[in-house]
Design a protein that fits this description.
about 220 residues; alpha/beta; 7-stranded mixed beta sheet
Length: about 220
């Protein structure tokens, strides 16, 4: 049988530490949360490889983000113990589980009913009580529980909707990867009053979330 606790330690030492994830709270959380519980049974033996892992149905394009990219994006978000966080694109709930160890509470938004059901079941089974999975279109965010100290977009977008930035508190942050494939860039948006500014974090290739595509352009 696979020793998943050893796999988690190796992930932290060989994938996170070597890629400049230095926040001990994140390292500890990712060593604690059983990543194998958030992937299909057929993928559990490879749950800790540093690659995107398919989740959901056979025709789904949704993936679990590479561990080191995920860890760096969480670090970029600078999540604090008292923060209320919105996770956009909860998937099967892995990112939500990790962030629940760092924040006061987490709202996990997912529009795929099957993924949302899985996330709810696994989070409950692991005894995570400060996170809730809600249903709705990802690009709309979840204003009912906002505004948020942090919005963490768990996947890449081509276009970041204003609706998400509108749900960030003044002084709050939004972490996201913008762009497809090798053109992807992790950015941190910071809110000051009604204005938002962004800064470069790092280059990243991350699977696109549905609903954040660029509008088709007419070409003569």
């Amino acid at each position: 049988m696979t020793d998943f606790s050893q796999s988690r330690r190796k992930m932290v030492d060989n994938q996170l530490r070597t890629n400049d994830v230095t926040d001990h709270r994140i390292l500890d959380a990712m060593e604690l949360v059983p990543r194998e519980r958030f992937v299909p049974a057929s993928k559990r033996t490879v749950a800790y490889i540093d690659e995107d892992l398919p989740i959901g149905s056979a025709d789904s394009t949704r993936v679990l983000m590479k561990p080191h990219i995920f860890g760096k994006l969480v670090q970029l978000a600078e999540i604090r113990e008292g923060d209320v966080v919105l996770v956009v694109g909860a998937g099967t709930g892995y990112g939500t589980a990790v962030i629940s160890k760092l924040a006061a509470s987490v709202v996990a938004l997912e529009e795929d009913e099957d993924l949302a059901k899985t996330a709810t079941e696994v989070l409950m089974d692991l005894g995570i009580e400060n996170a809730v999975v809600v249903d709705g279109p990802l690009a709309a965010g979840y204003a009912a529980e906002g505004p948020y100290d942090v919005i963490f977009v768990d996947g890449a977008v081509e276009v970041l909707p204003e609706a998400l930035l509108d749900q960030v508190k003044s002084g709050g942050r939004l972490a996201v990867v913008e762009g497809k494939g090798g053109a992807g860039v992790a950015k941190l948006y910071q809110k000051s009053g009604e204005a938002a500014s962004s800064r470069f974090g790092f280059n990243a290739s991350v699977g696109l979330l549905p609903g954040f595509e660029k509008a088709a352009e007419f070409v003569f």
